[in-house]
Amino acid sequence: MNAIHDTGCLVAGQWLTEGPRAERVGPYVRQVVSRARTAQADDVTTALAYARRSARAIARLAPATRADILERAAAALTGRGEEFARLLALELGKPLKDGRGEVLRVADTLSVAAAEARRIGGEVLPVAGWARGVGNTALTQRAPAGPVLAITPFNAPANLLAHKLAASFAAGNTTIVKPPPQAPAVSTALVELLLHAGMPVEAVQVLHGGGEVGARLCAAPEIAVVSFTGGVAAGHAVAHAAGPKRVLLELGGNAATIVCEDADVAEAARVCARTGYSNSGQSCISVQRVYVQRSRFDDFADALTGEVKALAVGDPLDPATDVGSMVDDAAAERVVRWSAEAAGAGARITAGGSRDGAVMAPTVVVAPPRDARVVREEVFGALVAVLPYDGFDEVIEECNRSSYGLQAGIFTHDVRRILTAWRELEVGGLIVNGSSNFRLDHVPFGGVKDSGIGRESPRWMIEDFTVTKTLMLKGLTIWGDQ
Questions:
Q1: Mean pLDDT of the chain
Q2: Which residues, 6+ apart, have CB-to-CB distance to 45 below 8 Å?
């Protein structure tokens, strides 16, 4: 029997533990693993007022102070990796090896945010380059935008919280965090670690709850910036509720990877198997559609099927497990249903296609129709579809047919194809000789179309979490009067 992790709401500097609670049943262990005190209407009102009052205090912290705190938190996390990985396994069914990888990324993200905090500055504008500017000087600075609302998803709750909260704090803002209901314990644990590292209590609040809590926070005039990661429908609701304020949306994808005829098929299959089913495919850049040049199609499908069948599936607390459970039974059942639909329309299921509770057997769907849901919609599960193509222009068009445009991969050594794909694919990022499912946390990340608005990673998020302020010095010049 695992201990139940009780978490409270952090409101106005106080942890609130009394009151209504929501229980999280682990999708693999099938028992309550965490309980979160849910935010009430009065808590939201108090938190918003406190955020408004606290904004100036956090803005006045020197960038070096903010950076030091984030670096201490990163160092502290390295000794608690197993604890966080275990929480991820219990709350979400994420295998320990995936959880350990996420914790390493959290530490990197905190360190990168610290480095970016030290670089925040401004510039001297060349106003004397135009006649009316002669005799004057103009300066700019990046100033904190104001209270930030961070709404985080379940699939990478620690690292995506780190991106939002660390960047917001590095920029000099106070932040209200609304964690996912599926991962309250790990989200709260990361906030507690930052507080222990010296983050002022005025810098962060935590409100657990569902969509009604998020909607009220989004609409509040006290909030200056909303940063949301999640599904498209929820993202549209967030944007509607937020109204005329800055909104950053990372909404998901239907990621395509192209395997050209000059690719190392065995290596491409190995990479796609490892990155298509990590976290049970519950990643917005997880490999979903693999388009293979027809002359290599059968070889790739066979190689991928063999690699997938070799994945260790089961207990996420077993260090050897590659694929644990999905977030809940309903999510796994949806993937089973979609794979069956594709098979009914003529596709071949060469691996998987079934589930045991929330554990989805890693599934390979070969040659589904182009209008099948496993091709057209975001699967967000342990399924990869493999499709043939003939011409390179054709496959670019196929990839772009999706309403999503987050990230893509391509296996080729042809520089012309690489540059063509980079130019023509309607995505925010292209991975060469790797699958779509690769990300460095200090590189801009985000998409186009239904995949969202804005870019993640500390440097680019700090730009969105700050505003440019101009100082005009009339009659004072560093350029000369003539």
A1: 97
A2: none
Contact 173, 58 (CB under 8 A): yes
The percent of residues above 90 in pLDDT, for the chain, comes to 98
- Six token digits for residue 175: 């932040």
Q: Rounded CA gap, 444 and 23, in Å?
A: 35
pTM: 0.96
Confidence bin at 2 (pLDDT 50/70/90): confident
Whether residue 1 is predicted with pLDDT greater than 60 in this model: the reply is no
Active-site hit among 9, 218, 272, 284:
284
Q: pLDDT over 70 for what percent of the chain? A: 99
pLDDT given at position 258:
98
Closest Cα partner for 399 from 276, 258, 210? 258
Checking if the pLDDT of 456 tops 70, the result is yes
Catalytic annotation, pick one of 250, 307, 456, 463: 250
pLDDT of residue 480: 72
Is 250 marked active-site? yes
Q: Residue 434: exposed, middle, or buried by beta-carbon count in 10 A (0-12, 13-18, 19+)?
A: middle
Is residue 397 annotated as a catalytic residue, yes or no? no
d(CA 77, CA 71): 10
CA 266 to chain centre: 29
Contact 155, 143 (CB under 8 A): no
**pLDDT score, position 403:** 96
Q: What is the pLDDT of residue 207?
A: 98
